[in-house]
């Protein structure tokens, strides 16, 4: 199973990319896709299309396009569910210690990371951010 994880602009600006990658690798997931990009508003409107009717949508797109992000594809057993558990609650105040948001952030509007919420959304998000050639299956060393 694969999941889409993205370090948001505040996570990049705070130098947390390495820490986040380390946590996923340490858990046993395999990194099969990685980019460093400054996303367009159009790409972000597409990514967050399910939130388009919400009052915070324009601010979300503005924030997410304010700097570079690090989209990633991780592979492993129950990658979507476990990935979401590793992230913690959307609101860092509700996130348990030991989760990425519980340990590394305090503000809901600057919660440093996005993770797919279902296998279906993971497929959609991976296909939106990565071409087929940019997601690479490989075998780890024994």
UniProtKB/TrEMBL annotation:
EC number(s) stated in the UniProt entry for this protein: 2.7.4.6
Keyword tRNA-binding: no
A single MF term (Gene Ontology): ATP binding
Listed InterPro entries: NDK-like_dom, NDK-like_dom_sf, Nucleoside_diP_kinase, Nucleoside_diP_kinase_AS
Reactions accelerated catalytically: a 2'-deoxyribonucleoside 5'-diphosphate + ATP = a 2'-deoxyribonucleoside 5'-triphosphate + ADP
Cofactor dependence: Mg(2+)
Keyword line: ATP-binding, Kinase, Nucleotide-binding, Transferase
Record GO biological process: CTP biosynthetic process; GTP biosynthetic process; UTP biosynthetic process
Domain Nucleoside diphosphate kinase-like intervals: 1-137
Active site: residue positions: 114
UniProt key word Transferase: yes
Domain of life: Eukaryota
Binding positions for ATP per the UniProt entry: 8, 56, 84, 90, 101, 111
Enzyme class per UniProt: transferase
UniProt-listed CDD domains: NDPk_I
PANTHER family: NUCLEOSIDE DIPHOSPHATE KINASE (PTHR11349)
The family this protein is said to belong to: Belongs to the NDK family.
Name under which the protein is recorded: Nucleoside diphosphate kinase
Source species of the chain: Lachnoptera ayresii
